[in-house]
Amino acid sequence: MNGKIIYSVFGAIAVGAFWWLSTFFTPKTTVAVVDSQKVLEGYQGFKEARDAYEIRIEELTKVFNDRRKIFETKKREHEVLKPERSPEQHAQQEENLSKMQQELIVLGTQLEEQSAKEEEKLLKGVYNKINDFMGRYGKEKGYDVILGANGQGNVMYTDHGTDVTDEVLKALNKEYVNGI
C-alpha cells in the first residue's frame, strides 16, 4: 500500500514538474493590435485612390447634371410654348420629353452602378495592398497574430504596448512612397 502511495506521489510530482517546465519552454504567442480604420484612412495609397475616385465620380455626375438641365430647360420651354403649338406638336413634344426623362433615369442608374464598381475596385486594391503588407510586417516583426480593431467590438481591450497602428501606418506609407 505504501508503494502505491509513493508511486502516486512521484507520479503527481512528475506531472507537476512536466507542467511547470512546459510553461517555461513553450513559446509564447506574440500578438499585436492595429486600428484598421486608422490605417485605412492614414494610408497614402488610399488617399490618392480616393481622390482619383472622387474626380471620376464628379465627371460622371457632371454629365448627368448637364443632361438633367437640358431636360428641365426643354420641359419649361414646352410649358411656355404649349398654347402656341398644335395638338400634334404638343403630343410630339410630350413624347420627346418622356424619352429624355427615361434616358435620364437610365443614365442615373448607370451612374450609381459605375460609382459602386469604382468604389469596389478602389477598396479591393487598397485592402489587398494593406493585407499583403500586414502579412510581411507581421513576419518581419515576429508577430504570430495581428488583430484588427475596427471599433465594432472585435477587440474590446488592448494594452497600448500591443498597439502597433502608428508603426504600421508609417511603414506602409514609406513602402507606398518608395513604390513597393
Description:
The chain has helices at 2-25, 36-42, 44-81, 87-141, 165-177, and strands spanning 31-35, 145-149. It is mainly α. The protein has a two-stranded parallel sheet. Helix 2 (36-42) runs parallel beside helix 5 (165-177) and helix 3 runs antiparallel to helix 4 (87-141). The radius of gyration is 33 Å and the shape is rod-shaped.
**Largest sheet features:** 2 strands, parallel
Biggest sheet, spatial arrangement of strands: 1-2
Order of helices and strands: HEHHHEH
How far apart the termini lie comes to 73 Å
Q: Please bin the fraction of helical residues.
A: over 70%
Q: Report the radius of gyration as a whole number of Å.
A: 33 Å
Stretches where pLDDT falls below 50 for ≥5 residues?
A: none
Number of helices: 5
Structural class: mainly alpha
- How many strand units? 2
Q: Strand fraction band?
A: 5-15%
Roughly what is the average pLDDT, rounded to an integer? 82
Shape field: rod-shaped
